């Protein structure tokens, strides 16, 4: 009995990854080149399906494509110690924590700006005036 094969459309539907993205992942080597049917359609395996789910989950956690390439390479080394994977996850966790800190600072500043509003017309808008002031936000996370 032969292994189930997926067309790019079937794979897209079952993984939630667009066909164009699947072809892109194949082009950049995150996914092995697919076999072709007699009529030229790409045919993917259950292993390709699993690999795409791995990529999708990794992207959802904010890993870059380069990080995912490294994680996939590590995943292919079944007997290697997982210290490198742990390090990669810890690095990503630190980046997420830094972004959260930046987002909290942005939230605080936006709340402060919102508190400046006294209603009225744009000509007298304290928010526009504050945003126009060059010293406001100096050193903020968006600079």
From TrEMBL:
It comes from Marinomonas vulgaris. Transmembrane segments: none annotated. Keywords: Coiled coil, DNA-binding, Transcription, Transcription regulation. This is Helix-turn-helix domain-containing protein. InterPro entries: DNA-bd_dom_put_sf, MerR-type_HTH_dom, MerR_fam, Tscrpt_reg_MerR_DNA-bd. SUPFAM superfamilies: Putative DNA-binding domain. Residues 86-113 form a coiled coil. Residues 5-74 form the HTH merR-type domain.
């Amino acid at each position: 009995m032969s292994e189930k094969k997926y067309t790019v459309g079937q794979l897209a539907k079952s993984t939630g990854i667009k066909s164009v993205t699947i072809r892109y992942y194949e082009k950049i080597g995150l996914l092995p080149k697919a076999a072709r049917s007699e009529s030229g359609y790409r045919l993917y395996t259950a292993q390709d399906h699993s690999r795409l789910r791995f990529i999708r989950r990794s992207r959802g956690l904010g890993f870059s494509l380069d990080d995912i390439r490294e994680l996939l390479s590590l995943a292919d080394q079944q007997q290697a110690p997982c210290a490198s994977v742990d390090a990669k996850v810890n690095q990503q966790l630190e980046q997420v924590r830094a972004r959260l800190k930046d987002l909290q600072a942005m939230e605080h500043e936006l709340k402060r700006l919102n508190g400046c509003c006294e209603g009225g017309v744009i000509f007298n808008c304290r928010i526009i005036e504050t945003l126009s002031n060059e010293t406001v936000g100096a050193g903020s996370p968006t600079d």
